[in-house]
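Table S2 (text version). Query chain:
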Amino acid sequence: MPRNYSIVVMFTALSPNRNCKICKEVHTEYTTLARSHRYSRSFNSDIFFTMVDYDGGAAIFQRLKLTSAPVILHFPASGKRKKEDKFDLERRGINAESISKWVKDRTDIGIEVIRPPNYTNAILLGVFLFAVSGTLLIKGNSLDFLYKWKYWAITSMFIMFAMTSGQMWLHIRGAPFAHVDRETGRTSFIHGGSNMMFVAESYIIAVVNGVIALGFIMMADAPKDPTNLNSKYMSYGGLALVVVFFSILLAIFRMKHRGYPYSLLF
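Corresponding structure-token output:
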């Protein structure tokens, strides 16, 4: 039946019995976008947002041949749906801004996402400033600790491990912490695709990279005396950490890039 408006539908499973954590996360972002459109100055009737829950609309799932949730589909005002009318959660992420950009691509209707005030960053900044002020007060006029390179080296390494593990990408995409299989109850901490990752996965990568760096530091800082047993233990221990954890890193890479031929120990 022809109409003069588009419809965006989220197919989900919010019942606690379904144990779909990502459904709740996507629902939060989806409703944020829908409310942003409803209360924006540019609100119009050219597009509508709605939702279908599996427990109340299983027949609709079957008719559209949907076997999983959540799924977000766009039903254009005229013509048949195309492949691009299905929102790609893995590639685009789950935050409202990503969904808004997809809606803009499909309907040419721009929706500015309006979120309630978030005071978390302000509180964290206040705690940080309080800690710094307290440290300076305790130290008095002595600021020698600011010139110790080890403190800055450790801080720089933490920042590098966080960035190389994908924390910024996760923050932008709003990825879930992990995935729980509804049928088996098994929790996956590493995503099987190369275009998506979980928050827990970034923690694992950061720890693995940190241990590899520790192994190199142990080998570099080991005493150069060949007769010193501690020197040998430290060198061999560092080498063992590098080999084992680099093997783990390669194994994770193979999990995400099927067909990658190289491995070390695992």
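Notes on Table S2: The radius of gyration is 25 Å. The mean pLDDT is 85.
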